[in-house]
Amino acid sequence: IYSKPCKAEIREKIAHHYPESQREAVWERVQMQYVDFLSDWRTDLGGKKNFHNGPGGNYDCIALMAYYVVCKDVTSLQEIEEMEGTSSCRRSESSASSNSSTSTSRLHRAFLNAKKQCDKWGDFEMHVAPFDKDQPIYYEFTACPTAEFAKKHDLLEVMPALCNPDFAGMELIHARLIRKTTCSNG
């Protein structure tokens, strides 16, 4: 269920870390770990119909966790963070700006739509503060399927690497993300 860009990123890192004679065997172990991870987990979070997750989404994160578990001796959390920042391709370069009141209002509506979609899919629990043109827009997630997955599989150490690219994503729309805690750390 992971995306093609995520697959390409994982295969590229395997090629970087392992000799050619071992690459297919390592890739097979990563895929088997991924299948094992999903054997008792939700498989309804991705796809074209799921607005928030889209193709890949949480499943790209789980694929990166599978890569991390299998290749822990050669990878690092920094590499996982770099992969998350590029492989998911959820961070699109945008010319949108959240600096004007019109853009802020439009972004607030986008957050309300995201909340509606989260409620529909039962994936993230999202709360959006009422719009006030004189205040920053505000939303928070109080539940995250990727964090729940990481807790279940004792992989919480990977969560900062998966969440930190959100800061760069917000910068692309000229917004600032303030995160005091995450779903994985309270």
Textual characterization of the structure:
It is a single chain. By secondary structure, this protein is mainly alpha-helical. Helix content is 53%, strand content 5%. The chain has eight helices and two strands, in the order αααααββααα. It has helices at residues 4-17, 20-38, 58-70, 77-87, 101-121, 145-152, 159-163, 165-172, and strands spanning 125-128, 139-143. Helix 1 (4-17) packs across helix 2 and helix 4 (77-87) runs parallel beside helix 8 (165-172). The chain is elongated, with a radius of gyration of 17 Å.
Beta-strand segment tally? 2
Radius of gyration equals 17 Å
Indicate the low-confidence ranges by residue numbers. 88-97
What's the end-to-end separation, in Å?
28 Å
Brief description of this entry?
The protein is mainly alpha-helical. It has helices at residues 4-17, 20-38, 58-70, 77-87, 101-121, 145-152, 159-163, 165-172; strands at residues 125-128, 139-143.
Give descriptors for this structure:
186 residues; mainly alpha; two-stranded antiparallel sheet; 53% helix; elongated
